[in-house]
Amino acid sequence: MTIKILPARLANQIAAGEVVERPASVVKELVENSLDSGATRIDIDIEKGGAKLIRVRDNGKGIAKDELGLALSRHATSKIHSLDDLEAIMSLGFRGEALASISSVARLTLTSRPATQDQAWSAYSEGREMQVKLQPTAHPIGTSVEVLDLFFNTPARRKFLRTEKTEFTHIDELLKRIALSRFDVTINLRHNGKMIKQYRAAKTQVQEEKRIAAVCGNPFVRNMLKIELEHQGLKLHGWITTPEGARQQSDLQYCYVNGRMMRDKLINHAIRQSYETSLRPEQFATYVLFIEIDPHQVDVNVHPAKHEVRFHQARLVHDFIYQALSDALVQSAQIDKPDINASAFHTEPVTPDIPTPVTADTNPVSESVYRAVEKVPAYPGQQGYEEKRQAEKERTQVREAAAKSDWVESRPVPRQKAKSEERYGEPAPSKQEVRAYKELLETPVLSQKAPSIPSELEPVPSALAEPAETIEALGKAVCVTQGQYLLMGDKQGARVISMAKAEWLRVNGQLALNGGGLKSQPLLVPLSLKLDPQQIEASQQHHATLMQFGIELKSRNSSSLMIMGVPQPLRQQNLQQLIPDLLSYAALISENDQALPPQALSDWLTNQITQVKSDYTLSEAIQVIAEIEQLWQGNLPLDDRAFVRPVDFSATIAAMKL
């Protein structure tokens, strides 16, 4: 056979073999073109699963009449014009093959009108040489592409189409992925004239979460953690779920690189590795993640369907994703589950008949009970409340202004609330949360008595330490009053818990050495600090104590040092301010020729980083109480009147009987 140039239609059909695999492939190309045109509303009409009709209409910029003919030609595009453009692609499309390939295997009509034209024009190609013809028509500003009878001229390809339901399912799944990538765009999907999906543009966080729930389901939203991390031009943000949100199939895994849908092996490996200690082999993580990177550092032109990319610094990207997700999962757990299932509010005598303590593996309480609550304003410690809140406000402004490389945010989303029988003005917890908390309070007594709490852990002024009967159990959580006080009760009476003090005890428990030391977690990128000579000297003098708390500092020279690692409770803090303040405190201790007591350092750190919400829901308060139970393991200071006080309703009840 002699060498010949292929006819235009045949060449386009060959190209269509890569571009047009099934109706969902057509929808993908057309919707991505709409997004590239700046559309804020996209309407997709499907008939017979896409085999009969695919129509995509948008309100984008439109195409001028003079360019309509070129739009249906091969290798014609407005998105790149040079090799430099190809090496820094930000648009979803760039090859200029989609419309020409689709028109070679279907009857395609392109209608468009830019804002600069009063008249819309339609373009379609026909004949062996794919000649383009134009005709005037009526159309609003934007573009419509109508694809009729897909694969009408390639019976072999049409024969391999699946059932109408299967093909539409692929289209539906594709639009879910696109809806998650562009919250600012309204997307409507109709099938056989019936509205199937309607994704309204999301402008607020609540609306974004509604769209996530519409795509991923409510269980995903209840267990999701928000991720946000940035380092040296590499940014990762989105949502992952705690291990409770894992599924038996990988159908809720959405990842995007510079807004482009991805199924990249390197990214998947980093995500799997971050979950490897949290999930069983048959479980799959669920996530919606967005990676933003300098377009010069990634090649998107390595896969026919653009599902994979090639990173120039693959190891950096892999470790960046792994570190970010690993930190988020650790922060969501806050603490390791203990070997014993003790309730802090049980002070009954130890019964030696019980052979072994109840292990965490037999604990029926859900993992979500132990999850940390959302980051909130500072704890009002020994300073005045308003002064402390102002200090935290200034610290937050510094945190937002500083270019940090450590963790920015990872917060559990509040669970949905269930109805309750008796609640007055407060959202009620779910039945699962109430049952879990009740089971915590009814935990069997331990066979071994836990060590008594050191006196230094009771930062209560003597004036508050009034003689009082020991409270054996706080009972059942009833409601939150005045936003920061939890009312609990049983047959013996009612008690009020201060959530501010509970938060202090939670952080102090996380920082407790308990005969060992806190594990240092290396920073993704060490932080460099310029310090005074006194601070440098203090870091060297108290190096051993700081290492006990997992604070790893490395001297660079006489005026600066590097923060190499910190314990988990400090991961979300503004280390560029906290560590210098800590060293100044240590230097002050050194001036008085005193050693730095570990308990004093623990209390100082607790005062600095404890944060208290201004208004707690009942479920949030229960989560805090459940966590401090696990941390203190039966040694909570129940005689501390700043933490818990009995409430006497007898006078009120007597007055009501008059």
What does the model show?
It is built from 20 helices and 22 strands. Helix 2 (23-36) packs parallel to helix 7 and helix 14 (499-510) crosses helix 18 (598-609). The protein has 3 domains: 8-199, Histidine kinase-like ATPase, C-terminal domain (Heat Shock Protein 90, 2-Layer Sandwich), CATH 3.30.565.10; 205-333, 2-Layer Sandwich (Ribosomal Protein S5, domain 2); 338-400 and 412-658, no CATH class. Strand 4 (120-126) and strand 5 form a beta hairpin. It starts with 7 loop residues before the first helix and ends with a helix. It has an 8-stranded mixed β-sheet, with helices on one face. A 5-stranded mixed β-sheet has the order 9-10-13-11-12. A 4-stranded antiparallel β-sheet has the order 16-17-18-22. The relative contact order is 0.09. With 658 residues, it is α+β, with helices and mostly antiparallel strands. The radius of gyration is 31 Å and the shape is elongated.
